[in-house]
Amino acid sequence: MFDGFKLDFLELSEATLRVRHAGSGPPVLLLHGHPRTHTTWHRVAPLLAQSCTVVCPDLRGFGRSSKPADSPNHSGSSKRAKARDCIDLMTRLGFERFSIVGHDRGAYTAFRTALDYPDRIERLAILDAVPILEAL
Question: Would you say residue 136 has pLDDT above 90?
Answer without folding.
Answer: no
